[in-house]
Amino acid sequence: MRPKNDQNTVQQTLHPTITAPVFPSTSTEFINVMAHYHRAEIARMAGWRDRIDRTTNWAITVVAAMLSVSLSTPTAHHGVLLFAMVLVLLLLVIEARRYRFFDVYRNRVRRMERNYYAQIFSPEDGTTDDWIHKLGDDLRRPLFLTSHSLAISRRMRSNYC
């Protein structure tokens, strides 16, 4: 049996104490935080944009393949076109879902660019600091900004119409 002192040190090494995070205390630290956060949000936005583009490319490939199969011979069954329509609808629904995530990150980036970076490059009177509170609330409780049907209609308009 170990002495009681050894058991306490073992428990302390297994369960380290958690210290409070260090918040930016100077304007330089705050600027560094904003720059890194902006870069991270841009990267997330670009990742979701890439996913949207891949889905669009798959929809185009499916349509091209199914048209080529269905119109290749006079005896080809035209049910293939119905199958292609269902596949394209499925890809559109996936694309709309991905667009909703992209829209959340795009909104955060635009909010920072409009209210922080634009103010640095071209200061204007009358701006408020309310944007940073809205950004904080959005990070605490993220919500989709567009409905599923609105996302589908935007994707339809931009890609399919």
Descriptive overview:
There is one protein chain. The protein has 161 residues and is mainly alpha-helical. It has one domain (44-160). It is 76% helix and 0% strand. The protein has 5 helices and no strands. The chain has helices spanning 4-14, 27-70, 79-121, 130-140, 148-160. Helix 3 packs antiparallel against helix 4 (130-140) and helix 3 crosses helix 5. The longest helix has 44 residues, at 27-70. The radius of gyration is 26 Å and the shape is elongated.
Instruction: Find the count of extended strands (DSSP E, 2+ residues).
Output: 0
Shape: elongated
Q: Main β-sheet, in a few words?
A: none
Question: What number of domains?
Answer: 1
| Parts with pLDDT < 50 across at least 5 consecutive residues | none
The percent of residues in helical segments reads: over 70%
